[in-house]
Design brief:
By secondary structure, the protein is α+β, with helices and mostly antiparallel strands. About 45% of the residues lie in helices and about 25% in strands.
């Protein structure tokens, strides 16, 4: 599980959609929602991101280590 502040939603979602397994957003109440390839959920995240001033804190869980490393590598390079 990792916590990130997403500053570039478009590129973040591009990386997420290239992943193999589920990318789960963990809400404060513990609910888990897969965002990989889920355009409806991704549109809601985009709206939250814009409402939040182009910054969105997310807690993520991954099915596969390769997906984790892809997102972490993107995040480290984007910041």
């Amino acid at each position: 599980m990792i916590k990130l502040n997403i500053l570039n939603m478009k590129n973040f979602l591009k990386v997420v959609n290239q992943c193999v397994g589920r990318i789960m957003v963990v809400s404060p109440d513990g609910k888990r929602t897969d965002i990989n390839g889920r355009t409806g959920i991704q549109h809601r995240l985009q709206a939250e991101y814009l409402e939040n001033g182009k910054c969105l804190p997310l807690t993520l869980e991954f099915d596969y280590p390769t997906d984790y490393f892809a997102v972490v590598s993107y995040y480290a390079g984007d910041c």
